[in-house]
Amino acid sequence: MLVKKFNEIGIQDISIVGGKNASLGEMFTQLTSKGIRIPDGFATTSTAFWKFLKENNIQQPLENIISGLDRLEYSNLNLIGERARSLILNANLSPSLEKAILTSYENLQEGAEANVAVRSSATAEDLPDASFAGQHDTFLNIKGKNAVLEAVKKCFASLYTDRAIKYREDKGFKHSNIALSVGIQLMVRADKGCSGVGFTIEPESGFENVLLLSGVWGLGENIVQGVVNPDEFYVFKPSLQNGHFPILQKKLGDKKLTMVYGSIEDENRTINQATPLEQQQKFILSDEEIILLSKWAVLIEEHYQKPMDIEWAKDGNTNALFIIQARPETVHQIKNKNIFTAYTITKKGTVLVEGNAVGSKIKVGKAKVLNSPKEALDLNDDTIIVTDTITPDWDPLLKKAGGIVTNKGGRTSHAAIVARELGVPAVVGCGGATHKIKNDDLITLSCAQGKTGYIYAGEIPFKEQQIDFSDLRMPNTEVKLILADPENAFQLSYYPNNGVGLLRMEFIITHWVKIHPMALVNYNYLKDTALKAQIEEITKTYTNKKSYFIDKLAEGIAMIAAAFYPKEVIVRLSDFKTNEYANLIGGKAFEPHEENPMLGFRGASRYYSDLYKDGFALECAAIKKVRDVMGLKNLKVMVPFCRTVAEGKKVIEIMKLNELVQGENGLEIYTMIEIPSNVIMAREFAEIFDGFSIGSNDLTQLTLGIDRDSEIMGKLYDENDEASKRIIAMAIKSAKETNTKIGLCGQAPSDFPEFAKFLVREGIDSISFNPDAILQGIENINKAEMSFVTVGSAESSN
Fold first, then answer.
1. Number of H helices, E strands in the chain
2. Given this model, what pLDDT does residue 465 score?
3. What is the CATH topology of the domain spanning 191-333?
4. Catalytic entry in 414, 430, 447, 642
5. Are 82 and 158 in contact (CB under 8 A)?
6. Beta bridge partners of 364
7. Distance between CA 294 and CA 239 in Å, rounded?
8. Which of 2, 170, 411, 737 is 20 to 30 A from 361 in CA distance terms?
9. CA pair distance 532, 520, nearest whole angstrom
C-alpha cells in the first residue's frame, strides 16, 4: 500500500509510516473519542519510498554517495548531503504514487484543494533513544496538487539533510535501512492564532508531576528556531486531575515576532512580522485553554504510558485547539534518577548575561562568537558556542562543543531540546549575549542555579559531586530540606527527604515579587512618579497591583509545595528586618529606621500592626490560593519571631480574618522557637500552635547575647555552647510533654556529628538541612541512631 489514511494507522505502524505519522494515526483513531482534536490527514508509506528509489534506480547510487562520507572529521558532510538530495530531487514520482497521493488529498476536503502541512517522518523516528527532532523538513500552507507532490519529493530529499546524516551516524543507524514517510495533514490556521509545544514532564529535571506548555503568536517555528522567547506555563498534574486550579506559574515571553503565511505564490511561504506591543504583553492562552491542553497532554501520556513531547496549535479562525504531533520524550526516561552529578558554584563573579538554563552542569571554556555553523572551526570540549540562535543546521557541530549560549530561545526551543539530548549545558534566550561576550573570552557557563542560567566573566570556582541515593538508608528521625529558591525545587525533590522543614518566603519576595507589598497596596497614592513608573513596568499586565503580589508569591510557594507533594512543606511567613524590607522597590517609604533591626519590627509583630497588616493580608491571600485554590494542602504555615503568647494569639486571629483558619482544610500553624521566651513559655505556646521549629541561629545568639554577624563578637557565637544546647533540650522536652511536633533548622547537625547525636538523644522529631548539607546530615543522624541502638542492646544484654 502506497498511502494510508490516519484512521487506518496505529502506533504499531512505525516501520510503515515512521514514528511521527504512526503517532498521529494512533491519536486520531484512539483519542479523538476522548475529546482531543487531531487534524485529519494521510501518510505515504515506506513501501512508497522504496518503490520511488527503485523506479528511479537511485538506491545504490545513494549508498555509493554515503559510502564516501568522511566519518572521522565529517569534512565533506555538506558535499555528501548536497549530492544525495540532488539525486532525489531530480527523480520522478511514479504515476501510481502521484494518483494515490492526489486521491487522498482531494478526499481531505471533499474535492476542494485544502491547505495542508506536509511533514517528514522517518521509519526509525522517535524511538526511545532517538528523537530525530528537527532533522527532516516540514512544509506548511501547501495548496494545490502540484505543490503537494513537489513538497512530498522535498520531504523525501530531506532524509539526507546534513544534520540528518550526522544524526544517524551518531545514533548508529544504517542509512540504507531508513525510509521516509510523508504525512499530509489539514492545516490549522495558527498563523492567525498561536502555537507551541509541551512536555508532560518538567524538561530540565524530569520531574513527573509537572508539565510544561510554551507557545508564541503565529506559527510554532519561531519556538523551534528559538527566534523569540515564548510564554511558558507550568501545570501541576495532581491538581489538574482532582479539580483544583493547576497552573503553578505563568511566565510572559516577549514574543516580539509573529510568523505568518506569505502568499501561496511566495516560495518562502512564511514570513516573520513584528508583534504589536499589546499582543506581546498578553498571554497567548487563557487559563481555560491552558487547562484544556494540559488535560489532553495527560491523556496522551496515559495512552502511551510514557512521558511525551507534544506540539499544539490554535486556529485563529475558529479559536479551536488541536494537537498536531506527539512523540516520546527521549532524555529523562532513560536516566536513573537515583544517581546524578551535583554542581555548585563556590564563589560568584561578574554576570555577563543570564537566560534559560538547560541542564544542571557548569562549564568553563573559551567563547566562540559565531554567526552561522559555517564559521564553526576547531570546536572542542573547551569551546562554548555563543550565537544568536540555534537551528537544526547546527546539530552536527553541537556534539563537539562544551556549551551553548544563545541570544534567543526558550527552554522548548530546538537549541534546548538538542542540548538536553546531547548532555551539553546551554543558556538560551540571554538577549545580547553576542554583544556582551567577546570572542575567545574565558567564561563560566552555569546551569546549576535553577531555571535561570548565568554566564560569568572568567573562570569561576565550582565543585562537582557524584551522588548516589539508591542505597541510602533514611533514619527514623525525619530529614527535611531548607529551601528558598523555587527554581531548584524540582531537581532537589530527588534528594532523600521527608519534605521541607523551612521554606523561606523572603527569597521569593526579593527575586520574584521585588516590590514592597505596601507600595502595591498604596499604588494609587504614591507621589514618587519615577517609583510609580518602575512599579507599573513590572506589573503592567495587572490592573489590580495587589493581585500581582498575590499571584507571584503564590507561584513561588506553589512550585516548591508541588515539587514535594504530598510531603509537608512548611512556609515561614515573611521575616525581613526593616532594613531588608526597605531594600524592596518602594520599601523606603513604608519602613521605619531602626538602630538594631535584628531585635526590632520583625516577624509576628508586623502582621497585626497598622504599618504592615494590609501587606500581611496579601501574604495570607497567596497562601490561601496555594492551599485552597491550587489544592496543595501539604503546605503548612510557620510564624517567625513570636515574642509572647498573646502575640501568637493575635497572629492566629488576624490570619483567621484573612481566611486562613487553623484546622480548616487541614491547615496547621507552627511557630519558630528562636527566642528564650518561646522556650520558657513552651507549654503555653503549645496550646495555640500545632508545632514548633527551633531556629538554632537566632536562639543561640539571643541565649548568648551575641550578634552572630558581629566582626568583633562573632567568634564567640557557637551553637555547640552548653547554654545553647540546654535551652534547645528544654524546648524539646516541653514539646514532648505537650505532644507537640518539634524540629530544628540549622547547620550544626551536619557540621558537628556530636550535635546531631545530642538532638537524636533528646528526641527531636525532624531536622532540616540546606541541600548541600543533607547527605552529611543523614549520615550523622544514622550514626547517632545506631549508637543508641548499640548502647541499648548492650545494656539489655547485661
1. 30, 30
2. 82
3. D-amino Acid Aminotransferase; Chain A, domain 1 (3.30.470)
4. 414
5. no
6. 444
7. 11
8. 170
9. 10
| Identity at 665, one-letter amino acid code | N
The domain covering 336-467 belongs, at the CATH homologous superfamily level, to: Phosphohistidine domain (3.50.30.10)
Phi, psi of 290 (to 5 degrees): -60, -45
Taking alpha carbons only, the member of 574, 570, 575 closest to residue 636 is 570
Are the C-beta atoms of 445 and 424 separated by less than 8 Å? no
Amino acid found at 208:
E
pLDDT tens profile 422-460: 889 999 999 899 999 999 999 999 998 888 999 999 999
Strand partners, 211: 235
Q: Which of 430, 447, 620, 745 is catalytic?
A: 745
Q: What one-character-per-residue DSSP string does 101-113 give?
A: HHHHHHHHTTTS-
Written as one string, the DSSP assignment of 135-184 is TS-EEEEE-SHHHHHHHHHHHHHGGG-HHHHHHHHHHT--GGG--EEEEE
Grid coordinates given for 754: 556530636
For residue 673, give the nearest of 703, 650, 649 by alpha carbon: 703
Give the domain 3-187 fold.
Answer: Dna Ligase; domain 1 (3.30.1490)
Distance (Å, whole) CA 406 – CA 434 = 8
Q: Name the residue with cell 541565649.
A: 703
Angstrom distance (rounded) from CA 214 to CA 222: 11
- Strand partners of residue 322: 313
Angle between helices 77-89 and 162-171 (to 10 degrees): 110
* Residue 414 among the catalytic residues: yes
Distance between CA atoms of residues 601 and 432, nearest Å: 42
H or E element, residue 19: helix 14-30
Find the helix packing angle between 14-30 and 46-55, rounded to 10°.
Answer: 150
Neighbours of 360 (CB within 10 A): 20
pLDDT digits (tens, 9 = 90+) for 286-326: 999 999 999 999 999 999 999 999 999 999 999 999 999 99
Top CATH class of 476-667 equals alpha beta
Residue pair 399/426 in contact by the 8 Å Cβ criterion: no
How much is the pTM?
Answer: 0.87
Euclidean distance between CA atoms 300 and 310, whole angstroms: 9
Mean pLDDT of 569-586: 95
658: nearest Cα among 590, 610, 608, 587: 608
Rounded-to-integer distance, Cα 700 and Cα 707, Å: 9
